[in-house]
TrEMBL record:
The keyword Transferase does not apply. It comes from Pontibacillus yanchengensis Y32. GO terms for cellular component: plasma membrane. Its main location: membrane. This is Undecaprenyl-diphosphatase. Catalyzes the dephosphorylation of undecaprenyl diphosphate (UPP). Confers resistance to bacitracin. GO terms for biological process: cell wall organization; peptidoglycan biosynthetic process; regulation of cell shape; response to antibiotic. Belongs to the UppP family. The chain crosses the membrane at residues 44-63, 93-111, 123-140, 152-172, 192-216, 223-241, 253-270. Its EC number is 3.6.1.27. It catalyses: di-trans,octa-cis-undecaprenyl diphosphate + H2O = di-trans,octa-cis-undecaprenyl phosphate + phosphate + H(+).
Length: 271
């Protein structure tokens, strides 16, 4: 019975993290809330990396056509097979993704301990940061933007990258922070959304690569629970991302703002 409960718990956490990762409500913040609310012991870094990898696979599935085009055109531009406006634009987009990754990578390494000690596992702090996320989403709720992929600048990319770095704080949504920053810069919704989730790929992939040693050392101790959480994360992330893309296309970001206000306030008051 205890083993069954463990399997259900891991599956639930995988589904929960997977669903909250793509939508702008902060997966890390919600995990803190759920663990505190239901007195669930934190599975550890290996678990977090694994379910994050599940979300990464879902993002790769959704944006596979964009990725194939970027890789194909990027290689064509680098090796000089085809150098035209399309390949030049896609190569520049790849460079921008690399630039946008740097702030979160650098600050994540430098401030990891400080963030963990200041915000980690503290539900009231998550309540505050969720309200901040709600305010940011409310500000951009009616913005449409006029700048497409060709109008992106390296300064704008750095700003979006810094926004992603801010989302290292639990309760600040990564997708929310990057999309808010992009929309405030005047980017179109589809450009902001695409850049946000393509920007998620190198950061997530880097985290997985750096944690390979921990994953291997885990051995078979929690193999089945981890597999369930991993698969749950893939499925939930895929459908949550599709749903979020549809919500954003309809201009309904305000509902996520309301959600963050309500949950943030309840957490701050009662937890």
């Amino acid at each position: 019975m205890e083993k069954l409960f463990e399997l259900i718990t891991y599956l639930f956490l995988g589904l929960f993290q997977g669903f909250t990762e793509p939508v702008p409500i902060s997966s890390s913040g919600h995990l803190v809330i759920v663990q505190d609310l239901f007195n669930i012991n934190k599975p550890g870094l290996t678990f977090e990396v694994l379910v994050n990898f599940g979300s990464l696979i879902a993002v790769l599935m959704v944006y596979r056509k964009d990725l194939i085009r970027l890789i194909k055109n990027g290689l064509a531009f680098i090796f000089g097979n085809t150098r035209n406006e399309e390949t030049k634009s896609d190569f520049r987009f790849i460079i921008y993704l690399i630039i946008g990754t740097i702030p979160a990578a650098v600050l994540g390494i430098l401030l990891e301990d400080w963030i963990g000690n200041t915000f980690g596992d503290k539900a009231k702090m998550v309540g505050i940061t969720l309200i901040i996320t709600g305010v940011a989403l409310w500000i951009i709720r009616n913005l449409k933007g006029i700048k497409g992929d060709h109008d992106i600048t390296w300064i704008g990319v750095i700003i979006v990258g810094l926004a992603q770095a801010v989302a290292l704080i639990p309760g600040i949504s990564r997708s929310g922070a990057t999309i808010v920053a992009a929309m405030l810069l005047g980017w179109k919704q589809e450009t902001a959304l695409r850049f946000s989730f393509l920007l998620f790929i190198p950061v997530s992939l880097g985290t997985v690569v750096l944690s390979v040693g921990d994953l291997v050392s885990q051995g078979e101790a929690n193999l089945i629970p981890y597999i369930l959480a991993f698969l749950g994360s893939i499925v939930a992330s895929y459908y949550a991302l599709r749903w979020f893309m549809n919500i954003m296309a309809k201009g309904n970001l305000k509902y996520f703002s309301f959600y963050c206000f309500i949950v943030g306030a309840l957490v701050f008051i009662f937890m």
